[in-house]
Design goal:
The protein is α/β, with parallel strands linked by helices. 28% of the residues lie in helices and 31% in strands. The structure holds guanosine-5'-monophosphate.
Length: 194
């Protein structure tokens, strides 16, 4: 997605060879117009699918996910990273291992918000090693709902997540694919390499 790539080039910061900071428009301050356009692009790419609900992970997945939900007029459900005081029973959980923090955390969704008839579009801000996405897939499949597809705003294609999700047979659509962050330079996977 051309406009997203341009935004990443202009405002993204390669903090290291592996970490991209995009807090100007996605991870802290949010650009709603760009998020709306991101959502339109997801909808175009998944137009062959029936989608009854969007599932994401708090907090940075929520902005693009809500825009998709708004356009499709379907609910948006976010997995929580911390246990809620009011939400304790009937939780479906899955473990997420973070390679960067080298720790395992549990994410959860209330079972009552998912049903076996649901066709879920998973939306998240980043795809790196794929652990967060796999945990969301795991939760959806634990209730026998269907994963219709996975929409990612920024995929770091030099990490393993994309290949892993593809190999499992899911339709994965990443709107910007980063080839490298070496030498503080943000390089994208070109259209031909897609
Ligand atoms: P994964 O589980 O695919 O390794 O990592 C996905 C999650 O880690 C994303 O939801 C995102 O919150 C975070 N993440 C991974 N890499 C980056 C990065 O380079 N920049 C930012 N801002 N977040 C990242």
């Amino acid at each position: 997605m051309e406009k997203l790539q341009q935004k990443i080039t202009e405002e993204g910061v390669a903090l290291s060879d592996t970490v991209l900071k995009v807090d100007n428009f996605l991870n802290h301050q949010i650009d709603p117009t760009l998020m709306y356009e991101v959502a339109q692009e997801f909808i175009k790419r998944f137009e062959n699918k029936t989608i009854t609900k969007i599932v994401t992970l708090e907090s940075s997945g929520i902005a693009p996910a809500v825009m998709v939900g708004l356009i499709l007029n379907v609910p948006v459900l976010f997995a929580r990273k911390k246990k809620s005081l009011t939400l304790t029973d009937g939780l479906i959980t899955s473990k997420v291992y973070s390679f960067t923090k080298q720790e395992t955390n549990e994410i959860s969704i209330a079972e009552k918000f998912l049903s076996t008839d649901d066709q879920i579009l998973i939306v998240d801000d980043f795809l790196a090693n794929g652990q967060a996405t796999l945990a969301l897939i795991d939760i959806v499949e634990k209730v026998n709902a269907t994963v219709a597809g996975i929409g990612i705003v920024i995929e770091k294609a030099f990490q393993d997540g994309g290949k892993m999700i593809h190999d499992k047979g899911y339709q994965l659509e990443s709107l910007a694919r980063i080839k490298s962050l070496k030498n503080k330079t943000i390089e994208f996977v070109s259209e031909e390499e897609f």
